[in-house]
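Hey, can you fold this one?
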Amino acid sequence: MSGGSTAPPMIGALLDQDVPWETVTVWQVDERVAPDGDEARNAGQLAVLPCVVRLMPVTNRDLRRSARQYGALLPERFDVVHLGLGDDGHTASWPPGDDGPVISKRSVELVRDFNGMDRMTLTGRVVNGSRSRVVFATGRSKRPMVERWLDGDTTLPVAAVTRSNTWVFLDEAAAPGRSVQLPQ
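Sure. Predicted structure:
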C-alpha cells in the first residue's frame, strides 16, 4: 500500500467491507526516511489496519542494507499493489526525471531528496510484477497529471505502471467528464 492522500479514504472503505483480515498482510510500497511517529511518515496511515503490516525499515542506520533486507522478505508476487498519483506525476516515490527506481533489478531502492526527503520504494519490477495494481487519484490538483497520463505522456513516472490488470479510480474533480479505459 502506498501512502499519500488517497490511502486514508481507501483504508476507510476497506474497513467497512467484510475482509478476512486474519489472512491479509499489507506491505508498504514507499516510505519517507523519517523517525518513527513523524507526521511525514506513511506508516501512521496503516496503524488502523487489523492485519499484519510490514513497514519499511527507514529508521535503520544502514538504509541500503535495510532496503535489501526488506526486499528479501517480500512475497514472490503481490496480489495487488495500491498506488497514488502525485501532483508531479510520480507514483510509488518514483521521481520525475529519474527512472532508476523504475528500471532497477532490485526489489527496493532508495531515492535521495525527493520533494525534500529521502525515501525507500518498491521498484518497477515488483510493482509491475504484481497480479494487479490499483491507482487512486482524487481532487482537482491531480487533474493536470491525470490528463497527461491518460493522453499518453510517457515522461510521467506513473506511465511506467503496466496497464494490463491495472484498475484506475478517479473522482470527478480529477477527471471531469472523462470515461477512462486504459489501452492494454
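The radius of gyration is 16 Å. Let me know if you want another pass with a different chain boundary.
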